[in-house]
Amino acid sequence: MKLLVDIGNTAIKFAILNSQKKIIVFLTMSSRELVAEKNFRQKIITVLSTIKLVLTDLTLLALFSVRPMWDDLFYQLAADLKIPFYQVKKNLFTERLKTDIPNLRNLGADLIVGSYATLVLFPKQDVILVNMGTATTISLLKQGILLGTIIMPGLETAAEALFERAQLLQKFDFSYDNATLGKNTKQAINIGLVNGHLLAITAFVNQLSTEAIKPQVILTGGNAVYIKKLVNYHYDKDLLFKGLVAILQDNKLI
Fold first, then answer.
1. Where in the sequence numbering do the catalytic residues fall?
2. Which domain holds residue 73?
3. Are residues 205 and 106 in the same domain?
4. Is 106 helix (H, G, I), strand (E, B) or coil?
5. Are residues 130 and 187 in the same domain?
6. Domain tally, the chain
7. Could you give the strand order of the β-sheet that contains 23-30, starting from the edge strand earlier in sequence?
8. How many CA atoms lie within 13 A of 48 on its CB side?
């Protein structure tokens, strides 16, 4: 069994690639929970047991990360288990991905694996990739080349900033509201946050579509749940892990 790890800005996701090459996401935890290494390992052990696995079943650990401060924890875990450790931007080659970006160091690992997945899943199409995480990124791949990306604050990031700075506003679970104007504070915030984010995304997608040939629009990321039913985009919650698996395959590691 291969252990796949996605270290994001606010959350860490764990998945297993089983012998049938199926990706099984089995744990999502906040970055804060990684403060205690003992706690982090115990969580993995406990959740693995629910799918009838133990740490010693793991034969490889591969990750992509935008938080380098956590990388050594996983390197040490792989070392303790005596299994190979691979990391995007460190010791995994991504030659299939061509870019029009001068400095490849500026490419985030999440953008690399997401773009890589689109090349495998939609090899003959131009692609607009919308990744809704801590930040929302909208990227254009044309004729297999990553031309660039747009970055804006993620939906939950914007909400946290609003609730933190406006003392009289109380936190609530926000959602899409089919109204133009709010008649109370909650409805007005829903329209501004969710509807506003949706309008920004669709505007950027429409703009980028004029620079591509019948692009396939792909939606992924933890915050995609807020809008996935409101747009006619291809939704894939496991897209980034699929990109990591494709990179491992191209490196002949699986």
1. 110
2. 2-87
3. yes
4. helix
5. yes
6. 2
7. 23-30, 11-17, 2-7, 60-65, 85-87
8. 21
Give the pair of three-digit tokens for residue 187.
């409805």
Measured between alpha carbons, how far apart are the two ends of the chain, in Å? 10
Q: Which tokens in the block code for residue 147?
A: 């031309």
CA distances from 22 to 50, 82, 143, 219, 234 (A): 17, 24, 28, 20, 20
| Tokens read off for 12 | 């860490």
Tokens of 29: 């935890």
Give Dmax (Cα) for the chain.
Answer: 60
Q: Pairing relation of β-strands 11-17 and 23-30? A: antiparallel
Structure tokens at 93: 């080659």
Distance CA 51, CA 53 (A): 6
| Ordered per-residue pLDDT tens for the chain, 254 residues | 999 999 998 889 999 999 899 999 998 988 777 765 667 788 888 888 888 888 899 999 999 999 888 888 899 999 999 999 999 988 888 888 999 988 777 889 999 999 999 999 999 999 999 999 999 999 999 999 999 999 999 999 988 888 888 866 777 788 888 889 989 988 888 898 999 999 999 999 999 999 999 999 999 999 999 999 999 999 999 999 999 999 999 999 98
